[in-house]
Design brief:
The chain has twelve helices and twelve strands. It is of the alpha/beta class and about 325 residues long. The longest helix is centred in the middle third of the chain and has 13 residues. This is DNA binding domain protein, excisionase family.
Length: about 325
């Protein structure tokens, strides 16, 4: 096979030993070059090799379904930061990719860079001044609140504004037909079950850990707890292939994978966090206008999986 060989997404998945849906996500995030031939997506072998070489220096998990995303906040070049006025939106949901596109086209907008890190690390980056906007879906088991307790603890002395984006259903991914009869969090006490976990710092990982704490379940007694993957799609794909009995993620992503049933457990609040000192600046006002626009809301409704009732609403000023 020569360097110019055109590969299908499935062939790329076979080479990288990942799920085909993960290939599509890499392409969507701009990490893997692709092109169209009619309605079909194709990837050159040389671009697959380039992707592999680019990620070799990044520590990865030893699981075949996990993949490396460009999530280091210092990975942006000085030229990129200057060109984009250092404006970085942090978070992993496709909603933010769409928001970035709208922001680039807005009269008072800006071209934003995207950093695909989890909620905890995103808030830390905002505190350090490395990103301008961070998203969070962090559940506090003691108060039952999302995000507000974490923002107040993780941005000490930094007044912040929390803007609601959407509510999403979080739950378990299980094999089609739920052959193990899994119902909820209490099932994590069953020693015969194996899970596939999200990476440290993600909102989903925090959700799991908070429920384990409240139920008095030791993580070391759960098979697969140390096995991590960095996307909902990869988690669901692992369960579909029989690599785990339980995965945790949102409903929208799980329904994209064949061979999966979704067990809803709780509704989570996905929200945007910015520093209060920035809210009157033009790009931030543009973001608020976009979030509250009917056009943006209609595009998200077309994707499905979001409750957009309070999108654009300021829910807390710390």
């Amino acid at each position: 096979m020569n360097d110019n060989s055109a590969l299908t997404p499935q062939e790329v998945a076979d080479i990288l030993k990942i799920a085909k849906n993960t290939v599509y996500e890499l392409i969507k995030r701009g990490e893997l070059n692709s092109y169209r031939v009619g309605k079909k997506i194709r990837v050159d072998l040389k671009d697959v090799d380039e992707y592999r070489n680019k990620t070799k220096s990044v520590k990865s998990t030893n699981q075949p379904d996990s993949f490396t995303v460009n999530n280091k906040l210092n990975s942006f070049s000085e030229e990129e930061l200057v060109r984009n006025n250092g404006f970085v939106i942090c978070g992993q949901d496709i909603l933010l990719d769409i928001l970035s596109r709208y922001l680039q086209l807005h009269p008072n907008g800006i071209q934003a860079l995207r950093s695909y890190v989890g909620s905890y690390n995103g808030l830390y980056a905002l505190y350090q001044g490395n990103v301008q906007m961070a998203t969070a879906h962090l559940w506090d088991g003691d108060t039952g609140q999302y995000n507000i307790p974490f923002v107040r603890r993780m941005l000490p002395g930094v007044p912040a504004v929390i803007i609601h984006l959407a509510c999403r259903l979080q739950g378990f991914y299980v094999a089609k037909g739920n052959p193990k009869g899994i119902k909820g969090w209490e099932d994590l006490k069953r020693k015969e079950l194996t899970i596939i976990n999200r990476e440290k710092g993600s909102g989903t990982r925090v959700l799991l850990d908070e429920h384990l704490r409240k139920l008095g379940i030791s993580a070391k007694n759960i098979k697969g707890y140390e096995r991590e993957s960095t996307s909902h799609l990869a988690i669901a794909s692992t369960v579909a292939r029989g690599g785990a009995d339980i995965g945790i993620g949102n409903e929208k992503s799980g329904l994209q994978v064949k061979g999966i049933d979704f067990i809803p457990l709780q509704s989570e609040r996905y929200e945007l966090v910015i520093k209060k000192e920035d809210i009157e600046k033009a790009p931030y006002q543009a973001v608020l206008e976009i979030l509250r626009s009917q056009e943006f809301k209609m595009e998200l409704e077309g994707i499905g999986g979001y409750d957009l009732t309070d999108i654009g609403k300021i829910v807390d000023e710390t």
